[in-house]
Amino acid sequence: MRAGRQPGVIELAGEVRSAGIARDFVREKLGCDHAVLDTVTLLVSEVVTNAVVHSDSRNGGTITMTIADSGDFVHVDVVDAGGDEVPQVRDEEFGEGGRGLRIVQALASGWGVRQYATDRTVWFQVKY
């Protein structure tokens, strides 16, 4: 994807295999020589996996991912069906789960969660 181009959008099934499909989509849209390809691909994998595992999308729903390159940063939105808990970084350093958003927090230049009545968006940006 060249800087400033319209975002790419993909709808994914609420299934584990969707994380791999999302990674392939990122590589296709950004191109193999993009400055932040590896970081964006890793973060997409974490956020989509969280949506599949922790949101109501896992019950036959969908996840929509949007990616845009502003020329200064890549912005990604991952929209799922929401759930009982709001995604957050876990303080349990050695816990069995919760590392995904720690990775997002460490590598993204910004990230957050927007919770709505019918869905939720986890977004992040990676500067280059």
Which architecture would the CATH scheme give at its second level?
A: 2-Layer Sandwich
Whole-number mean pLDDT: 90
The DSSP helix count reads 3
Distance between the termini: 14 Å
Q: Strand order within the widest sheet?
A: 1-2-3-5-4
Q: Catalogue the unreliable spans.
A: none
- Give the biggest beta sheet: 5 strands, antiparallel
In terms of structural class, how would the helical and strand content be classed?
alpha+beta
CATH class: Alpha Beta
Query: Which fold name is given in CATH as the topology?
Result: Heat Shock Protein 90
Question: How would you describe this structure to a colleague?
Answer:
By secondary structure, the chain is an alpha+beta fold. The protein has one domain (8-127): Histidine kinase-like ATPase, C-terminal domain (Heat Shock Protein 90). It contains 3 helices and 5 strands. It has a 5-stranded antiparallel sheet with strand order 1-2-3-5-4, with helices on one face. The longest helix has 18 residues, at 37-54. It is globular, with a radius of gyration of 14 Å.
